[in-house]
Write the structure tokens for this entry.
Amino acid sequence: MNILLVCAGGMSTSILMKKMEKFWAEKGVDLNIKAVGVSAYEENAKDFDVILMGPQVRYKLDEVKEKTGLPTEMINGMDYAMGNCENIFKQVEKMYK
């Protein structure tokens, strides 16, 4: 799975990214993931299959979908805050179908 995480500055998604890497590894699923700030999504999107966005950049969702043409969704606010990788994994699986 190739996932681009987008948040305001890339810091909070970097924390989530580490949790996701560990969770995916425990599931035995290959994961290529990168966390970036909203100002850098365009230059990075070409290397990824799906985009997950942090709740703080919800206002950019339509723009990111339009400019990248990639499946793009918001991460549920509670899942984001708690680092609930089980729910995020399920969300990404649906995005790949």
About this structure: The helical segments are 11-27, 41-45, 61-68, 77-82, 85-96. Residues 11-27 form the longest helix (17 residues). The mean pLDDT is 94. The CA atoms of residues 25 and 74 lie 23 Å apart.
